[in-house]
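Why this split exists: single-chain examples teach little about how molecules sit against one another. For that reason, every record in the complexes split bundles all components of an assembly together and asks for one structure covering all of them. Below is a record exactly as it appears in the raw files.
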Amino acid sequence: MAGIEDVAKLAGVSTATVSRALSGKNSVSAKAKAKVEAAARELNYTASASAYTLATGRSRNIGVVMPFVDRWFFSVILEGIETELIEHGYDLTLYNLSGGADQRRKIFFEFLNRKRVDAFITVAVKPSEDELQQLAIAGIPILGLGGPISGARTVSVDEIGAGRLATEHLISLGHTKIGNISGTPASEMEFHQPNLRRQGYLDALKASGLTAHDSWLAEADFTIAGAYHATKQLLGDPRNAPSALFIASDEMAFGAIMAAKDLGLRVPQDVSIIGMDDHDMSEFFGLSTISQNVRQQGSNAAKTVIDLVENLKDGQPVNVEQNREWPGTLIVRSSTARPPRS
Amino acid sequence: MAGIEDVAKLAGVSTATVSRALSGKNSVSAKAKAKVEAAARELNYTASASAYTLATGRSRNIGVVMPFVDRWFFSVILEGIETELIEHGYDLTLYNLSGGADQRRKIFFEFLNRKRVDAFITVAVKPSEDELQQLAIAGIPILGLGGPISGARTVSVDEIGAGRLATEHLISLGHTKIGNISGTPASEMEFHQPNLRRQGYLDALKASGLTAHDSWLAEADFTIAGAYHATKQLLGDPRNAPSALFIASDEMAFGAIMAAKDLGLRVPQDVSIIGMDDHDMSEFFGLSTISQNVRQQGSNAAKTVIDLVENLKDGQPVNVEQNREWPGTLIVRSSTARPPRS
DNA sequence: ATTCAAAATGTAAAAACTTACAGGATTCCC
DNA sequence: GGGAATCCTGTAAGTTTTTACATTTTGAAT
């Protein structure tokens, strides 16, 4: 493995000049730069990351913390972040919390201290007071996705607004008996997104003078199966069934569609269903939904965090507390229509 | 941020002793060890990763390269790897190739050289000659998942055997008209797993003296939608339709089940369907399948790669060329049954 | 009490970069 | 052509840790 010294020797300059030529930040004569670049190419040289980090205190590496990576939302956002980071010459190191409390402690109190990352992006993770303090001591800026974190920048989706949007779509079609399935508290993210979505649903009903019958509401596991069973209950009694359902996630909505079919109900003729997320498979199911533009949320977060670490002032990020909210956009497919005349 | 010197001062010993006490590898008196540990805890000290790497040449960091992260198989395997790595004190840095050839070149010819990782795990990626050479020069060991890579250790699933297993299950139920849907070449992984699965299917038929009618074979996009349309074709003509289908992936099999239902066919009474992977949702669909134990494949790969980097001899891994193959296991659910009497 | 081996500790070099500082070379302008 | 300003380059210090080597301490055996 060639080091900077080898390049310097081959190019006939000092290591300082090599460093300057390759980083492109300081003044180097065109001639020297050419020689250095040729030598570096010949020796296949790239500066060692650890020496760079040690010397500069910067690692060009971003840590990403998420509770799972094997769920659709998280894997898509991860891909969005990663692609953007690579583009800018950053590495991504992944920390997933699915290993439980012990793993979480290890991540926040050991790995974090190794000064291996310039900043963290947390996705749907709410750091505890202890954890935030730990981050502050280590001087690592943090960007939160999917919920407010005090003292940190934050990028999130307007969950309430999105829930309202979905519900308003159903109301505008003429539905008055609108049900809702949200996640159970246990299966929820740490910021209770599904709860917020229901809040938007309730807001929309209220604004239109409608009320939510208790028997039109359900909570279910955040999965296809969970929503399948919940839907069978909600739609089971034809005399008292809602004519439309707003479901807290697309994945759950798939289960709802299958349940409706298995009950002999046609979607959308007998019952309208709208989800939320714009999952990859939603188009296949013809599911109307609210798009969150997840991949772009990821790349946006990556851009923001790079901005954060490249514009530190005295080691502190400038412009803290700037929260950006994304609106959702309504996507109408074939799972929603006017209510049946009864 | 406290450095090793601060800890040494507080504990009243030299930095060498601190290093030894904390790494636990060399002899330190019990008394000194206790003092150092107390001091480290008080100062909240963890050795800086970059200095450690610079001094030792080891980074305790594993690079993972995969073509996507937002597909079920990849995200699950990633989670398996990550959880195991954390357990052993390793970090994971993620490189995904979905950004195209340019990103790929950047990863293999720039990022890789930074000496930031001790080893690579590649998942369903077939490095080119150039890329392999690059890895060799950099002295980075590599563990391949999902296909053979010359000169590297490899962990893979016996795809042919798995395809045979699935087909034999259908044969043992009494089916003689067995169709198969595999991925299109374009949508395939770089090692052509789906092709291998079809190979196993053909082997099994042959062994039982059965033949595959051309009109029972199809290739489709590796998605629900792809298989949905292919299935509609295969089962569209009742007089010439197979009574059972072996589908190259569970995700595709979901599409097949829906297509069958939409054609008015009952699964399994009218048509049996078996997939492959044991996807999270397969239980919900009642899909019979071949389990690949994906998460465990991931954690197994992580263990193997740690073994690889911790047992280097003269910078070279020992035991190269050791290929481990996983068998699949048959999981029978409710999507397969005896063929209908016709 | 001596002696010797083994165990514990300290000193200082090494790992591979960046960058402040200072000095030499150019360029510019009059 | 001379002096100042600017640009370029090299020297050496600094970043934080590990570890070879040297030295001191400990403990056991005589």
